[in-house]
Amino acid sequence: MKILNIFLVMLFCLILDTDDASPIGAGQSDNLWQQFKSDYKRNYQDQNEEQRRYDIFRQNVNLIEKHNQEYAQGKTSFTMGINDMADWTKEEFQARNRFGNRKT
């Protein structure tokens, strides 16, 4: 099961790395958030949902920034960027892609 979880995290990271992904810069989360919502036409049900999605987005941006720093240090072989799934949790990603429902 641990191997499956590692695989899913790696797959999620690879999916975040798309050709049309935006570059990430530290301290730009508000601007990135506004751009993300515009690019992917995000409209949330209410302020609470938007705040929840922003928090998820920020966590994913932090993951992307950390990974890209590791790339710059030669520790990984690919970069990551923001795409249409940047406001999804890992669990939402798994559920929408049915990876969490497979038995091994």
Automatic annotation (TrEMBL):
InterPro entries: Papain-like_cys_pep_sf, Prot_inhib_I29. Residues 1-21 form the signal peptide. Residues 33-93 form the Cathepsin propeptide inhibitor domain. It holds the Pfam family Inhibitor_I29. It comes from the Eukaryota. The keyword Signal applies. This is Cathepsin propeptide inhibitor domain-containing protein. Keywords: Signal.
